[in-house]
Specification:
Layout (H helix, E strand, L loop, with lengths): L3 E5 L3 H13 L3 E5 L2 H8 L6 E5 L7 H11 L4 E6 L4 H9 L4 E4 L4 H27 L14 H13 L6 E4 L6 H10 L8 E5 L5 H9 E2 L11 E2 L1 H4 L4 E5 L9 H10 L1 E2 L8 E2 L3 E6 L3 H6 L5 H7 L2 E4 L9 H17 L5 E2 L1 H9 L5 H15 L4 E2 L6 H4 L19 H15 L4 H8 L3 H10 L6 H8 L1
Parallel strand pairs: 1-2, 1-3, 3-4, 4-5, 6-13, 6-14, 7-10, 10-13, 15-16
Antiparallel strand pairs: 8-9, 11-12
Helix pairs in contact: 5-13, 5-14, 13-15, 18-19, 19-20
Length: about 475
């Protein structure tokens, strides 16, 4: 959306110069030659940025700024003067101005300042909106987000929740795969039954087998009593197997048989026990590739992957970052008994710029840290963890020497693929050739990064 700018200067020539210069930079510019005319115009029109001269007759730029902040607090004001001094700059900022420019100034530099001011105003409005709607937002169970990527997830969950089809949830670590599994359970016909979860990477093969299938009394040294396994515990409910990609190869045929027969044989037992549980699995690994490389049973992969749901990374979810941040803020403020209510616009800008390699989990940790150290009613840049606070989009991780500047290899791959994709104007055949990957791999990567590919192209790329 084009930023709307109002220029205020009692020198008609200067006014025309600024109007023409900012207009050529793509702004929608209006101009008036007095502060009084500006206030009158603002009564019936909306502007994102006001660029005002400091020294004007009747009402100065400082006085105009003070009145604008009182009546239009979300409008960003840039004060310009030929009589620049530290004292004048301080007075302008104290009156509520977004920035201060001294004459003679570089018109290009002024345009950049106006662009930043417009973004600041947009973020201020967005933060205010989010603060207002978070408490009233209709959540998708415990999931929160309104980005196109998440809406696709919600739509698929609604379509498959009432079935008993096995579901495989994929996505990077920290994206909220277990929350999605719980959402599937809560929207299913099994919602009154138990939701039983286990991490397949958290225990040895022997212990995991006992946990899943149960054991008979005396099956091993410490088996003093018989124990039901989690498949039976989840009867008429949902069993969630997290990190299914870490399931030991020795256990995979036993899991496959259990899913096929809908019965489990406890360790050391002679009788098979029926169960009625829906299976939802999750992994951050490429199980299809693992199956092709014989690191995961191919038949088990197809058994658990009846429906595939992919949780998008946080960097693919756009403004969901701010929505989630506000929700975490409200929760942490209540938990820590802190008066903090919102995010400063510069904080929102930094949160949107940061790539979040740790996804939603990292964002939650960041906001918890910020609320814990905050001293006011609004989070500031100083409250953010150093890694997030000092991040800049121009930062090149592989060229840095500070450990905090490094990012995961997957994030570097994502940045490079998207850079090549942009440089080659989205020509997927050429992108695949340049990257040295096949079209199917490129298609999978683009989907993972939230880049849309139309249905016709998808068939071609996947073939």
């Amino acid at each position: 959306m084009t930023a709307r700018v109002l220029v205020v200067d009692d020198d008609p020539a200067e006014c025309s110069l600024l109007e023409a210069s900012l207009g050529t930079q793509g702004f929608a510019v209006s101009a008036v030659t007095s502060a009084e005319a500006a206030l009158e115009l603002l009564m019936g029109a909306e502007f994102d940025v006001v660029v005002t001269d400091l020294n004007m007759k009747a009402m100065t730029g400082i006085q105009l700024c003070e009145q604008l902040i009182a009546s239009h607090p979300d409008v960003a004001v840039v004060v310009v003067t030929a009589f620049g001094s530290i004292q004048t700059a301080v007075a302008a900022i104290r009156s509520g101005a977004y920035d201060f420019q001294s004459k003679p100034f570089d018109l290009q530099a002024l345009a950049l300042t106006v662009e930043r001011a417009a973004k600041h105003r947009a973020l201020t409005k967005e933060v205010t909106r989010l603060r207002r709607i978070v408490a009233d937002t209709e959540r998708f169970e415990e999931l929160l987000g309104s980005s196109p990527a998440m809406k696709k997830v919600y739509d698929l969950v609604d379509r498959i929740a009432e079935t008993d089809a096995s579901v495989l949830v994929t996505g990077e670590s920290g994206t909220g795969k277990e929350l999605l599994a719980r959402a599937i359970h809560q929207r299913s016909k099994r919602r009154a039954g138990p939701f039983v979860a286990i991490n397949c990477a958290a225990m040895t093969e022997t212990l995991l087998e006992s946990e899943l299938f149960g054991h008979a009394k005396g099956a091993f040294t410490d088996a003093k009593t018989a124990r039901r396994g989690l498949f039976v515990e989840a009867d008429r409910g949902t069993l969630f197997l997290d990190e299914i990609g870490e399931l030991p190869l020795g256990l995979q045929p036993k899991l496959l048989r259990a899913l096929q027969e809908r019965k489990v044989r406890p360790v050391g037992g002679n009788v098979e026990v029926p169960f009625d549980a829906r299976l939802v699995c999750a992994t951050n690994r490429d199980l299809e590739a693992a199956a092709q490389e014989s690191r995961f049973r191919n038949d088990l992969f197809y058994r658990i992957n009846v429906v595939h749901l992919h949780m998008p990374s946080l960097r693919a979810r756009g403004a969901d970052v701010l929505l989630l941040s506000q929700a975490f803020l409200v929760r942490c403020a209540h938990s820590f008994d802190k008066p903090v209510r919102g995010l400063a616009p510069e904080v929102a800008e930094r949160l949107l710029a940061y790539p979040w390699p740790g996804n939603v989990r990292e964002l939650g940790n960041c906001i918890e840290h910020a609320v814990a150290v905050s001293q006011g009613d609004c989070l500031t840049l100083e409250d953010l963890p150093k890694k997030v606070r000092d991040f800049s989009q121009s930062q090149v991780s592989i060229a840095g020497t500070e450990p905090s500047s490094f990012v995961p290899l997957g994030e570097m791959e994502r940045r490079y693929i998207l850079r090549v994709f942009e440089a080659l104007d989205g020509n997927k055949s050429l992108v695949a050739h340049t990257l040295g990957v096949d079209r199917k791999t490129l298609y999978r990567k683009l989907k993972e990064y939230g880049v849309s590919v139309d249905t016709h192209e998808a068939r071609g790329l996947a073939s």
